[in-house]
Every structure is written in structure tokens, then in C-alpha cells.
Amino acid sequence: MPNGIKHFCNIQKIFQYFLFRVQKRRRRLMGLYDEGFSRNLPHSSTVTMTNNFQVVGNFKLNIMMFKREIILNLNKYMIFKFQSSFVPKHEPVQLSDAITLEHFIKEHKRILVLTGAGISTESGIPDYRSANVGLYATSKSRPVIYQQFISNPEVRVRYWARNYIGWPRFSSMLPNYAHTFLKKLEDKNKIVHIITQNVDNLHTKAGSKNVLELHGTAYVVHCLICDYFINRHQFQNVLSKLNPQVFISDIYSVKPDGDVELTPEQIGGFKIPKCPKCEGNLLIPRIVFFGDNIPKERVQTVNDFVEVCDSLLVMGSSLFVYSGYRIVLNTKSANKPVAVVNIGPTRADDCVDIKIEAKFGEILPLINL
Ligand SMILES: [Zn+2]
Fold first, then answer.
1. CA of 166 to the centre of ligand 1 (A)
2. Does 78 score more than 70 pLDDT?
3. Could you tell me if 72 and 130 lie in one domain?
4. What is the DSSP string of 272-294?
């Protein structure tokens, strides 16, 4: 057979193959759609939607509902196929929950947002307290206590060795759907401010401008004796020059504060620099460590936000840490509504107005802003 015809046949085969794949995908999608419509949805949602389709006849509404249906069913498929190892076990998202959250967002114009470690699990950073997948459930190591860090040089060496190894992976984490969603809300002037308990900088990476890092940031290192500070990326270079023998591989699983687990042998001989300004030995990330207190001015700023907001939306926090729980209590004391989206119980379940358990990547695509 001449070469030209051979090539033509090959191209035709490739085209047929892709056509087959596209048709198969469409069939599967429609199958999922039909199945979900009759079987997986709560009864009330099905009835409402059927009424919408048949009686209301609002074309735009129907398209919106159809889009939601497709997303709902794709979500179920994705849960089955790609369960993230850091997202706690959860039920498929309910359409009624998505509608409740959408109403909450639409009803309010000055929402104060509080985010915790649960918002970053879909970016590949574990949280602290979730069952089976959180740091406390999967590891015996605990975050360094502030008093240990400042009083014990060995703790500081161990801390920085682990932080040095974990940094390339931790700093390469990217924002997920939830961070981007909040950026869109900010662009629509719906948000007074985002307060985050996380130190991972993912809200800023997503482009949000009004972010208060309640527990500080892992992206700046400062001296506890003088006013010297340095960008964490630059500090990595300093550590790297001091420790050329230390090899960083990509096999470590990183923790919410950028920490990784190392054996004493791996830590042995690790060197940490002195402060170049005061020669002191207390360089520390600008993070509020466990056992340390949030600066008073920051607490006051949070109180000011509570005063000017018209509602509070908590995303991905068990509110176990009092600094976050206090924001909920203060908002409720001011008679303002509070909605919580978190997989698993929270400390404030009894006092909040709305509690939804859902994965952000599944519920947020259902919200029409
Ligand atoms: Zn200093």
C-alpha cells in the first residue's frame, strides 16, 4: 500500500478512536446523570427539580439545575476514583446543603470568613485533628511547643532540620478550589476579610488581598531578640549553604506547618545560622507556636472585623483551638449568623446557625455566585 494511503488510514483510525472515546464518555456521563436523578438525590430535591423542569419552565433555571446535576454526579464518580489521602472520609454532597450555603452567601454582604487546616487538605496538606487522615491520627509526633523551642537548642536544631527538608514541598503547594472560590467572593465585594488559622500562604497565592494570618506565616523567619527578619525562601539558601551534606528528596510527607519526620541520624550534624544582626541564636518562623499567644493587636483587629461584619462563614476548622472558637462566640454574641462547612464535628456545632459537612471541591462548584 502506498505510504500516503497508509498515513490516511492511520489518521482515520486515530480519529475513530477519539470519536469512540468521546461517545463512551458521553454515554457514561448521561448514565450517571440518569442514575443520580432517580436514585442518589434526596427525595425532596428530586421533587423540587422535577417541578422546576416541568412546571416553572424557566429555561435559565433548568440549565443551572442541569449543570448542578452533572457536577453532583461527576463528584460521586470522582470520590470513587480519586479519594484524596488527606481529606477525611465524607458522604457525597447533598444538593440541599449547596442551596443552603448559596442562600447564606447571597443573603449577606459583609461576610467575615474564618478558614482552618481543612481548607488546605485538598491541596495536599494534612490537617491536625481529622479522624484517620489528620496529623494526630497518623503520626506520634506533635508540633513543637514554643517554650521548648526557645529554651532547648537541640529542639531548635531538630525543628530547623525538619523544616529545611519539608520546605521545598510545603512551599510548592498550590491553592485549591476553595481558595479560588474565596478570591471570587472577595472580587464581588462580599467579604469583609479572610482570617486564616493556616500558615501556608495559600489564600495569598490564590490572589486574595484581605487576609489576616491569625497564627502567623511560615513564609517569614525572624529573630526573637532583635527586629531582624528574612524571607523563608532566602533563609532556605542560608541553611543550604550551611548544610551541603543534607540531601533533600521528595519522599517526605509534609505537615500543616511544613514539618517532616526525620530520624536522629538524619538530623545529626545539622547547623542553624545565628542572627546576622545581633548574633543571637533565636531565629524562628513568624508562626504562633503551640503554647504561644496571638499578639494583642491582632486579636483587636479580629474583634474589629467581627464588629463590622454581618455574618461569619467558617471553612475547614474544627474550632478546637480557642482563638478560632472565640471568633464564633463573639459573632454569636453580636447576634450575627454563623455558618460552618467542615467534615467532622466542630467545637461550635451546638451554637452555629448552619452546619454543613462536605468536601469543598464538591460543594463549592454547585454554588452560583
Ligand atoms: Zn537578632
1. 24
2. no
3. no
4. -PPPTTT--S-EEEEE--BT---
